[in-house]
Amino acid sequence: MMLNTFRVRKTKNIVAITLMGVTATLACIPIFLILFKCLELGLPAMTLQFFTELPKPAGESGGGLAHSILGTLTIVTLTTIASVPVAVILGLLTSEFPKRKTARLASLSLDVLSAIPSILIGVFIYEFAVVAMGGFSMLAGVAALALIFIPIMAKSSHEIFSLVPREIRESGMALGLSRSRVLVSILLIGVRGGLLRSALLCIARVSGESAPLLFTALNANYFGTSLFRPVSTLPVQIYTFAQTPFPAWQEAAWAGALVLIGISLSIQVMVRVVGSKV
Amino acid sequence: MTTTPSIELETKNLCAFFGTFKAVSDVSLSIISNQVTSLIGPSGCGKSTFLRCLNRMHEEIEGASISGKVFFKGKSIYDMHDPIEIRKHIGMVFQKPTPFPSMSIFDNVIAGVRLSGERNKKVLAELVERSLREAALWEEVKDKLHTLGTDLSGGQQQRLCIARALAVAPPVLLMDEPTSALDPISTAKIEEWLVGMKGKLTVVIVTHNMQQAARVSDQTAFFLSGELVESGNTGVVFTVPKDKRTESYITGRFG
Predict the structure, then answer these.
(1) In 3D, which of B27, B25, B36, B33 has the Cα closest to residue B74?
(2) Could you tell me if A118 and A212 are in contact, meaning their C-beta atoms sit under 8 angstroms apart?
(3) Which chain A residues are Cβ-neighbours of B84 within 8 angstroms?
(4) Are strands B90-93 and B172-176 parallel, antiparallel or unpaired?
(5) What are the residues facing B64 on neighbouring strands?
(6) Does B182 score more than 90 pLDDT?
């Protein structure tokens, strides 16, 4: 009898471990396929020129996507600077004052906003910013990306703050500190590592967005130096070049994709390093 | 209001509510200066709620309120506009050790004073050593003051929280079941510390452990269903209780 239940448990264990192996493999296959395809088709175009020059006219070989790489870095940096404080404040509001009307309204809006397809956010910003300002611009792109960044980070900050036990806040207040002091100097500082990881994941997410940028920042074949003019970004540039019949541009699109994957991969590595350091 | 000089804290007809639920009912109790007073009673009898009324932590829970009076050195604390000032004088240690996350042992100890504005490094360093010595933790952590407070063992974390509360130099310390999450050795260390603090600090401790109350406290108050049944000298309450219910509880017939 005992031997029998042992056999049953052992069989269950083998089945479970096999299933885990199969699912883990299934999760890895697409990643490796994408990576191999991009390496195969993009690597030949990855020269020094690719990182330093603007694209050559159609049909000519050489040139690069320096303006798109720089554009993506600029637009993502600006989005991050604009979004992180707003998201953290919203996270604090919804986790620390959950019964306030403003917090409940904010919470509902964040849930809805995070479920809206990104292309609709692009269309919305097109209506309200691009049309109003009279043209596509980097600023409109930042606004669209921020609308994607803020709800994701606000919701994860909410979770991060909620994980801190109530007693920690009470201990701070029992030391004679004001509530705002406790929230900023103990709670916020205490979870800074988690917030940083959350911000990095949002950066990874928005740096690959293309749909909202098509309606806002559009594209350009020069370096984006003005907030009020269109700017080229990697995802939109890849989208544009991939549709052309020119082999050199298609190759550049693959190389651009490889750079995007590189950005995303390095962020993931940073998240893991930050996880053990802060 | 007149109070005798040896009384540090005094409640008059104190009731505490959560919404409409009355958790503490009409309690009048005097806490004597520089002695250890223990509050005993079965779970849910209102002793923790009573304790939290003494430094106005009760009102931080949504829907919570009180009626009656609490006097600290003769002053009515609920008539003070700002609860923050009173908490600097009446510190608190909680049931679960609560070292602040991502803060070193050093930073944990000085959290209260630093965040209140003290910046002098020498003053802070001295304060850390003095507070950790007072909490009997200095010898164990003096070589790793800049490691995380959360990396300490549970018992050490609780003594760190005591050191943190002491660093603000409150004349009164409230302790809400401070050893119920700890092992016997850590508990013994904290009890030893408590006994050592007699004559220097007024302590009010909530405990489920009646032996602990008998070992460490000078005064004992027995709570039941939100009411104060009996209070007085610990020796008297434990050996010749006036009330039948106190006797039943301390002899282990319920609770």
Answers:
(1) B33
(2) yes
(3) 173, 176-178
(4) parallel
(5) B18
(6) no
Q: A158-186 pLDDT, tens per residue?
A: 999 999 999 999 999 999 999 999 999 99
* Tens-place pLDDT, residues B95-109: 999 999 989 999 999
Strand spans (E) along chain B: 7-18, 21-32, 36-40, 64-72, 75-76, 90-93, 172-176, 202-206, 219-224, 227-233
**pLDDT at residue B2, rounded to an integer:** 44
Q: Which structure tokens are listed for B36? A: 């250890």
Q: What is the pLDDT of residue A212?
A: 94
Structure-block tokens of residue A76? 């993502």
ipTM: 0.88
CA dist list (Å): B213 to A202, B41, B179: 53, 11, 12
Instruction: Judge contact between B133 and B200, C-beta under 8 A.
Output: no
Asked whether the whole model's pTM tops 0.90, one would answer no
What domains, with CATH codes, occur in chain B? 7-250 (3.40.50.300)
Residue B143 CA to residue B138 CA, distance in Å, equals 9
| Closest alpha carbon within chain A to B149 | A190
Which residue in chain B has the smallest CA separation from A180? Answer: B115
**Token pair for A148:** 């994607």
Chain A interface includes B168 (CB < 8 A): yes
Average pLDDT, chain A: 92
Which architecture, in CATH terms, is A67-277?
Answer: Orthogonal Bundle (1.10)
Where do the domains of chain A lie? 67-277
Please give the Cα distance from A253 to A260 (Å, whole number): 11
A167 to B94: CB separation less than 8 angstroms, yes or no: yes
E strand map for B94-209:
172-176, 202-206
Q: Which residue has the tokens 């430094």?
A: B55
Contact list in B for residue A278 (CB cut-off 8 A) is 102
Neighbours of A7 (CB within 10 A): 10
Kindly determine whether residue A171 and residue B101, on different chains, have CB atoms separated by under 8 Å: no
Q: Count the alpha carbons within 13 Å of B140 in the hemisphere toward its beta carbon.
A: 17
Q: Which residues of A100-138 are buried (b: 16+ CB within 10 A; e: fewer)?
A: eeebeebbeebeebeeeebeebbbbbbeebbeeeeebbb
Are residues B102 and A192, on separate chains, in Cβ contact within 8 Å? Answer: yes
Contact flag B98-A167 (C-beta cutoff 8 Å)? yes
